[in-house]
Amino acid sequence: MNPTSAAVAGAVTFLWLGMVLAISFLEAPLKFRAPGVTIPVGLGIGRIVFRALNLTEAVLAVVALVATAVGSPSAAIVTLLAVAAVVLAGQLLVVRPRLNRRSDAVLAGEDPALRRSRAHLYYVGLELVKVVALLALGCTVLATTTG
Length: 147
Prior knowledge:
The chain is mainly alpha-helical. The chain has helices at about 5-30, 40-70, 75-105, 120-145.
């Protein structure tokens, strides 16, 4: 890749990775441990935070795609970026709507135990795949600038 494209793609990739790690693996589980945070309050906060995260992720994905496309990327870079982008699209188009239906029901007063769902596990699994893809992508982009 050319140096400018690699710098932009690398910076955006690591920013994206950091946001996913901070929100999905720190903020999300910890908020329910805070005193006074009930499941409905935590879900309400989570919906706002993840809506903002996912919007930001989409913007970062587009920037990474553009920077990569104009930079003559290797097949590895294209593949890793495609994996991260496809996982994000799957989360937004398939898993998030299911999670939103569940949180709608809980916020409407339904007992959360009655609305058990595997959608949350799918979302976390996809987050793990995305984290690995972003880490590998960032390292691969960095390697192209130094090698």
